[in-house]
Write a structure and sequence with these properties.
The chain is of the alpha/beta class. Helices cover 34% and strands 17% of the residues. It is built from 12 helices and 17 strands. Strands 5-3-2-6-7-8-13 form a 7-stranded parallel sheet, with helices on both faces. Strands 10-17-16-15 form a 4-stranded mixed sheet. Helix 2 links the parallel strand 2 and strand 3. Helix 3 crosses helix 5, helix 7 packs across helix 12 and helix 9 crosses helix 12. The longest helix is centred in the C-terminal third of the chain and has 24 residues. It is globular. It binds NADP nicotinamide-adenine-dinucleotide phosphate and guanosine-5'-diphosphate-alpha-D-mannose.
């Protein structure tokens, strides 16, 4: 049987290498600049191990570190389908250069496997990004979420003790603004008390404190990045921002009729993932480990995100009704919506909607048993100590995401026109 290339990269280091690329992950049309376009090489490159390499942040961080000359090892889960789309562009054929990017099968719920991978890869830096990261899903799978997100972090830290690597390795933990949950003050900073509101938040709370404890007990250079929401064109499709930008693009091309959402009033501090992975790296370059809030300091509601995304495709919405009866209705259609597609053949598509049509509705199935209503971060400590500041503005984030989703929708539209099957991807 023919082996696929991800399978080849299983237990042994894969015979694949990394393009020395500063290109965007899904950046065919992206205008956002990579913060580290300088490629640094060394005969003794630093080695990073990233858990959650196949996720949004894992992909951006891998690209960031490779561009800085690192050797990057990633842990990916076994899946019955390919799950490496986000890092696929980092592979090139072995004959084209020296490999600096490797993947290993593993799981945060499997301690022996984590110990073996750390021993084999001998990392200088570990970035623990792997997690069951969906808040609503954590209400459905609370035990698994605790196992992966809370105990998974403990397993990695224990592996460092077992392998006697507590003084060698710097450790980054993907902590979250979900720790603030029912926020006790506005804006939230490092000293704001925690009040998690989901099994995900509670699991991440354990992870946060076990990192602090191992730092204090064993002197590990371990830092928590308390990151507020960060998005991108490769954000998971079931997080609200991507769900919205994807729907806007698909509605424009007639592939979808309506967008159903939950709490439109929820407010988040949304930044761009590309900016945020740089902060992770900066934390591990400090002499002393510490915990940092990473945020933009700007807040928008889900409703405002919808408005901004539909504006990008030339649709002005107005909102009528309230609660579960609230609807987003087409108020205006601008000409520029017809110039946004990449292919001219699609510019003449007749919109299947007109003024007065309802495009957005509320579906209570997306309400959460306990909700985090509002999050707004104060990243002044990171600015002062790390020199970090969010660069991408809200409007540009939305633009970037809609543009990339339009490209994907165009592809689906063309496939459908030519008689090929297009996946529906139900939530
Ligand atoms: P993501 O896109 O959902 O990626 C999560 C990654 O973890 C994926 O690679 C996933 O693998 C992997 N994973 C899940 N369970 C695992 C397990 N048991 N063992 C090994 N790997 C596992 O999340 P993200 O947005 O990149 O976020 C990265 C980290 O930052 C997460 O820990 C998240 O909780 C945290 N965080 C995210 C944000 C945000 O706004 N994005 C904010 C604060 C904190 P598959 O691809 O196989 O599913
Ligand atoms: N997912 C989703 N789907 N959320 C919706 C919807 C919907 O249809 N409608 C409204 N929302 C609201 C949610 O109730 C929530 O208040 C807000 O939109 C954001 O939801 P998500 O995009 O799912 O993100 P999150 O804030 O719950 O969690 C993300 O950010 C955290 C950092 O604060 C995840 O990336 C977490 O892993 C991360 O820790």
């Amino acid at each position: 049987m023919k082996r696929n290339r991800q399978q080849e990269s299983g237990d042994k280091a894969p015979k694949r290498n990394i393009k020395h690329s500063t290109s965007n992950i899904r950046g065919r049309t992206s205008s956002i600049q990579h913060p580290t376009s300088i490629i640094q090489h060394s005969s003794h490159p630093r080695v990073a191990l990233i858990t959650g390499i196949t996720g949004q942040d894992g992909a951006y961080l891998a690209e960031f570190l490779l561009n800085r000359g690192y050797v990057v090892h990633g842990i990916k889960r076994r899946s019955s389908l390919f799950n490496t789309q986000r890092v696929d562009h980092l592979y090139v054929d072995i004959h084209e250069g020296h490999p600096r990017f490797f993947m290993h099968y593993g799981d945060l719920t499997d301690a022996t496997n984590l110990i073996r991978i750390i021993q084999e890869t001998q990392p200088d830096e570990i970035y623990n990004l792997a997690a069951q990261s969906h808040v609503q899903v954590s209400f459905e799978t609370p035990e698994y979420t605790a196992n992966a997100d809370a105990l998974g972090t403990l397993r990695l830290l224990e592996a460092l003790r077992i392998l006697n690597m507590t003084k060698k390795v710097k450790f980054y933990q993907a902590s979250t603004s979900e720790l603030f949950g029912k926020a006790r003050e506005v804006p939230q900073k490092e000293t704001t008390p925690f009040y998690p509101r989901s099994p995900y938040g509670a699991a991440k709370l354990y992870a946060y404190w076990i990192v602090v404890n191992y730092r204090e007990a064993y002197g590990i250079h371990a830092s928590n990045g308390i990151l507020f929401n960060h998005e991108s064109p490769i954000r998971g499709e079931t997080f609200v921002t991507r769900k919205i930008t994807r729907a806007a693009a698909r509605i424009k091309l007639g592939l979808q009729k309506k967008l159903y959402l939950g709490n439109l009033n929820a407010k988040r501090d949304w930044g761009h993932a590309r900016d945020f992975v740089e902060a992770m790296w900066l934390m591990l370059q400090q002499k002393e480990p510490d915990d940092y809030v990473i945020a933009t300091g700007e807040q928008h509601s889900v409703r405002e995100f919808v408005d901004a995304a539909f504006k990008e495709i030339g649709i002005g919405l107005e909102w009528k009704g309230s609660g579960v009866k609230e609807r987003g209705i087409v108020k205006s259609l601008t000409q520029n919506s017809k110039r946004k597609t990449q292919r001219r053949s699609l510019d003449v598509i007749q919109h299947s909607f007109e003024k007065g049509d309802v495009l957005v509705k509320v579906d209570p199935r997306y309400f959460r048993p306990t909700e985090v209503e509002t999050l707004l971060g104060d990243a002044s400590k990171a600015r002062k100590k790390l020199g970090w500041k969010a660069k991408v503005k809200f409007r540009d984030l939305v633009k970037d995401m809609v543009r990339e989703d339009l490209v994907e929708a165009e592809r689906d539209h063309l496939c459908r026109t030519e008689g090929f099957r297009v996946m529906k991807f139900h939530e």
